[in-house]
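Hypothesis: this fold can be encoded by more than one sequence.
Test: take the structure tokens below, design a sequence, compare later.
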């Protein structure tokens, strides 16, 4: 996928998630996501942050957080969650914004959108049905060093094998399972571990 195709995929995935979120009940919005301490509403708000918060405004949040990105991110997510009454509409209306983190290409926001989509869908028992080509791009990104610097806490000293599409990555003892579960584990989510098997599982602990 070239950059234009990746940006098109990002727009589509944001709109798919916005359409889904627009159907949520109050209980679903309040359901804890796979992101520790965040509800499903918080995760949608997090995805809206780069679409509505300027770089200078986020820089100010970083100053207030004394340079701690995680604290700044939490603060801006809480602000957006409380400021936008219709998060799905905002996500849909601004879905085609081509923001990328400084020094990163469009694979970073594509990964963010798909992984956070799982953070919401998994606890709610909703299938993601992602496009396989998009999943392959995200898995490659997560295994790659650029992806690890943003998302990864999981070692790549294993060979990752998707059992439901044609993809492998890394080198070492095998860890295999559904592609979505690999995405979760590669991005530091333990929720996908139960779906995996192989000699390389001991490397993950």
């Amino acid at each position: 996928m070239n950059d234009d195709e990746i940006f098109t995929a990002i727009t589509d995935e944001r709109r798919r998630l916005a359409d889904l979120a627009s159907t949520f009940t109050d209980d679903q919005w309040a359901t804890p996501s796979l992101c520790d301490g965040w509800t499903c509403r918080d995760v949608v708000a997090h995805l809206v942050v780069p679409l509505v918060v300027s770089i200078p405004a986020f820089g100010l949040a970083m100053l207030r957080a004394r340079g701690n990105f995680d604290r700044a991110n939490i603060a801006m997510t809480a602000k957006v969650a409380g400021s936008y009454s219709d998060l799905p509409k905002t996500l849909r209306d601004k879905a085609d914004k081509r923001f990328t983190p400084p020094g990163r290409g469009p694979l970073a926001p594509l990964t963010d959108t798909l992984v956070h989509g799982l953070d919401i869908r998994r606890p709610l028992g909703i299938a993601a049905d992602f496009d396989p080509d998009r999943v392959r791009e995200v898995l490659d990104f997560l295994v790659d060093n650029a992806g690890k610097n943003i998302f990864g806490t999981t070692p790549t000293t294993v060979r990752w094998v998707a059992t439901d599409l044609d993809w492998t990555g890394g080198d070492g003892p095998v860890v295999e399972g559904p592609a979505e579960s690999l995405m979760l584990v590669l991005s530091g989510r333990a929720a996908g571990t139960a779906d995996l098997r192989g000699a390389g599982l001991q490397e993950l602990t």
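DSSP finds ten helices and three strands in the chain. The first strand starts at residue 159 and ends at 162.
Hypothesis status: open.
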